[in-house]
Amino acid sequence: MTSTFHNEIKLGEVNYRLSATTDSDESMVLDLLGSLDSGEVVADGRLRLPVEGGTTIGKLLARVLSAHTRLRSRPSRHANANQPWTESLDTELRTVWLSPSAPGTPNLIRSLADDMQRSPTAIRARLARVGCDPDVPGRELSEAAAVLLGGKSGTSQGKT
């Protein structure tokens, strides 16, 4: 037996319509359509899911979409936030860290963050990944520290 549930909501200028149709005892089809008052479609999609997982998948989708919305609505102060690190950026970070000219770790981290347009937290995290001790400018990570921090030891990086 086929059954369908429809729900509609208007968010801003977009009218959303969600339909859930069970086409058998085993699966459900979700259809989403988002359109402007002019009729222009701005969102559409279809998911086929097992019926018994509907509630759980609904909660999962709600969490993912909510998190995505929070991330998108939060303006980043750092132009390169969430951008991938390249080999050349890793090399630059490692070179500057291992030959420090600024006094004190916080100042050097802040300076690197400003120069690379990333957060100080991102710089500290990346330092361990490139084999640098994030607490001591000029020092590579030891083997034991690399294991703890999930990075590479300075000796596995080679000298720059």
Radius of gyration, in Å, reads: 25 Å
Question: How do the strands of the widest beta sheet line up side by side?
Answer: 1-2-3-4
Q: What can be said about the biggest beta sheet? A: 4 strands, antiparallel
Please bin the fraction of helical residues: 40-55%
What general outline do the C-alpha atoms trace?
A: elongated
- Mean pLDDT across every amino acid position: 84
Structural class: alpha+beta
The run of helices and strands is EEEEHHHHHH
In total, the number of strands is 4
Strand content is 15-25%
Segments where pLDDT lies below 50 for 5+ residues?
Answer: none
- Note the quaternary state here: single chain
Can you put this structure into words, describing what you see?
This protein is of the alpha+beta class. The protein is 41% helix and 23% strand. The protein has six helices and four strands. The chain has a four-stranded antiparallel β-sheet, with no helix packed on it.
Topology:
Layout: E1 3-11, E2 14-22, E3 27-35, E4 41-50, H1 54-73, H2 87-98, H3 105-116, H4 120-129, H5 143-149, H6 154-157
Antiparallel strand pairs: 1-2, 2-3, 3-4
Helix pairs in contact: 3-4
In short:
With 160 residues, the chain is α+β, with helices and mostly antiparallel strands. It is 41% helix and 23% strand. It is elongated, with a radius of gyration of 25 Å.
Question: Which tags fit this structure?
Answer:
single chain; 160 residues; alpha+beta; 4-stranded antiparallel beta sheet; 4 strands; 41% helix; 23% strand; elongated
